[in-house]
Amino acid sequence: MELRIITPEKVVRREDVCRIVAEASDGVFGILPRHMDHVTQLVAGVLVYETDEGAEHFVGVNAGTLVKTGPTVMVAVRAAIEGDDLAHLRDRVEAEFRRHTEEERKARSALARLEAHMVRRFRELQGVDQ
To answer: What is the pTM (predicted TM-score) of this model?
Structure first.
């Protein structure tokens, strides 16, 4: 089956694989080529896949969606980090995803301040018109 891992910025991995292990909110699950089609929400964690040659690879993924249709498994995530050393990958994933979370928190905070400022300005303008 073909595995495609994509983020908003790029296609991270496109490879023929014989096994995939990922994590959803209800636990870890595996996919083999003849499994039925389905859609699953992934949680942040490590996705494991085995190539047709028998090599096992690891990809740290942020929350996303896994869709299996026929011989294709598409994994769409906010961020993905590849690595073959699981211990090192775990450290990289924690640091990178923590940075992403902090950037998102700052962006949400800036947006909230902007919205509050707009509301104040609208109220001021309504007061002038009355």
So the answer is: 0.69
